[in-house]
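Budget justification aside, the reviewers requested a transparent look at the raw inputs and outputs of the sequence design task funded under Objective 1. We therefore reproduce one unedited record. The lines immediately below are the structure tokens for a 255-residue chain.
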């Protein structure tokens, strides 16, 4: 899977990373955001269940107080599509009402691209209380500075040596002041192990097979492909539609 470049203006080339049974990189479907996405577009007269969004077979109850709605992004720092999606996720977060709560679940199914390590790193950062303020910097470390890169930019292929949890510990020491020894000790703790197991339970419950995927209140699953329906998958994808759809689902759950 190779890294996609930003297109002109508001254009975005995003690939959906899919779970694969072999150690090869997960297959991807490309969608593009054109300049037309610069202006919000009206949503369909009615969002179509089973097309624009899918119901989670066994909804996962949230632990939030009544009236709060959970919006979850399933992602990986090593996922190129997730990296390209970040500006739109940030826009989505800003568009949500005050009763919406955003959280993140790191996926692990693409072991060939080191996703399990990044999942463990995120769980550890959460336990140490530094995940939120280092979130964007971690994407930069993988895709911009190369400090935790999984791809060789000169060849577009996977690096022979993938980042380790020790490398991640050095990153968090630099970005958040967490001593390397403390980060590593926490990564091996009972609490972090339980959190990783919880992530895996959620990935199965949500039936995640690609990233990024958004889950609203443990009930609704949305991908960039589903949000773009009825446009063909090889045609224009308007990122604003995904934001509109999530906002609409949050509003339904807020009633």
């Amino acid at each position: 899977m190779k890294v996609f470049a930003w297109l002109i203006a508001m254009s975005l080339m995003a690939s959906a990373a899919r779970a694969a049974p072999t150690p090869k990189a997960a297959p991807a479907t490309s969608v593009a955001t054109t300049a037309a996405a610069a202006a919000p577009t009206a949503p369909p007269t009615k969002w179509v269940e089973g097309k624009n969004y899918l119901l989670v077979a066994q909804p996962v109850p949230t632990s939030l107080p009544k009236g709060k709605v959970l919006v979850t992004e399933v992602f990986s720092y090593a996922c190129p599509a997730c990296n390209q999606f970040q500006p739109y996720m940030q826009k989505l977060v800003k568009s949500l009402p005050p009763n919406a709560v955003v959280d993140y679940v790191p996926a692990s199914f693409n072991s060939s691209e080191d996703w399990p390590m990044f999942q463990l790193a995120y769980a550890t950062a959460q336990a140490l209380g530094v995940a939120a303020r280092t979130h964007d910097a971690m994407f930069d470390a993988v895709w911009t500075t190369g400090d935790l890169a999984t791809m060789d930019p000169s060849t577009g292929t996977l690096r022979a040596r993938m980042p380790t949890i020790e490398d991640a510990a050095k990153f968090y020491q630099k970005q958040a002041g967490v001593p390397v020894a403390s980060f590593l000790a926490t990564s091996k703790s009972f609490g972090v192990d339980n959190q990783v197991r919880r992530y895996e339970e959620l990935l199965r419950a949500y039936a995640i097979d690609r990233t990024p995927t958004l889950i609203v209140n443990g009930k609704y699953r949305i991908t960039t492909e589903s949000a773009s329906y009825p446009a063909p998958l090889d045609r224009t994808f308007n990122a604003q539609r995904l934001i509109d759809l999530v906002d609409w689902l949050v509003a339904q759950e807020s009633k």
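The longest strand covers residues 69-75. The CA atoms of residues 124 and 187 lie 5 Å apart. Computational costs for records of this kind are itemized in the attached budget.
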